[in-house]
Amino acid sequence: MRVLFITSTRIGDAVLSTGLLDHLMREHPVARFTIACGRVAEGVFSRMPALERLIPIEKKRYGLHWLGLWWQVAFRRWDLVVDLRGSAIAWMLLAKRRAVMRGGRRPGHRLLHIAQTLGISPAPRPVAWFGPAEEAKAAALLPKGAPVLALGPTANWVRKVWPPDRFLTLARLLTEPGGALEGARIAVLGGPGEQERAMAAPVLAGLPDAVDLVGQLDLPEAAAVLSRCALYVGNDSGLMHLSAAAGTPTIGLFGPTPASEYAPVGVRALAVLAKGPPGNAPMGALSATRVAEQAAALLARPDPVELGEAVS
Question: At 253, is the secondary structure helix, strand, or coil?
């Protein structure tokens, strides 16, 4: 069985689509998958079991990237084509079955929309794939003998960034005597590039003993590192979704973006909202004390959280 799976150009949406892939792999153990995704999201799938081919989609003017993709996949008969981009390409291919996600914004969490493409309920949770090499690198990078608090102070939009001083206060509240992660070491994660480095710089300067992993990891390596952490706290970003998919207790920080659509999804994952209109609140309206309280409550919970759970 051969499956063509067309998914997002963005890391966060790509991570959310992994649950559907995991479901398909369990339903069809002998299936082989071709994944078409944005270049920045390739690492989400590069260690995926049953992966046959990974096709990066380079966006071009006039939608010519779809023509390029069609040319690469048109000369094969597919058993199933899943298109989460809502394009017309699925109808231009030889396929026994097609499933195309409706485009446009609509109420409800993005994970539910993805699952509805194949009529699956409940929606399968995202997963994170990495291999022995990534596990070994993660073990070598993180300090031994103490829990690790991972911080994600970067995002792809400046309005989504929590003030650096709040991250510093949060780190102190969680790791000081009596804190929820007393004695924990700290790792700071972020993506490649000067913008990510600049966003993380004030946090790294205030935490000189932290492990600096900003721009140092590809996505499978980041997933392996996150899987070894006791807690991740970060802005609404692809890294936040990757942490939750890796099974790490995850706190996502939300202000000007809708947690109702993009809250992290995992066994222990929670969105904490800034005070103000949901999806249009300033990040400065979220206090470090509140985040520390929610982190402590999340770590203490014996039961899994609900899908896309958020607190305001």
Answer: strand
Residues 6+ apart with CB under 8 A from 230: 147, 148, 149, 181, 184, 248, 249, 299
Looking at the DSSP bridge assignments, the partners of residue 252 are 234, 271
| pTM, entire model | 0.96
As its CATH architecture, domain 2-116 has 3-Layer(aba) Sandwich (3.40)
Residue spans in the chain of domains classed CATH 3.40.50.2000: 2-116, 132-311
pLDDT tens column, 258-304: 999 999 999 999 999 999 999 999 999 999 999 999 999 999 998 88
Distance between CA atoms of 119 and 125, rounded to whole angstroms? 15
Spelled out in words, what is the top-level CATH class assigned to the domain 132-311? alpha beta
Identify the CA nearest to 275 among candidates 233, 311, 241: 311
Query: CB atoms < 10 A from the CB of 121, how many?
Result: 9
87 token code pair: 């394009």
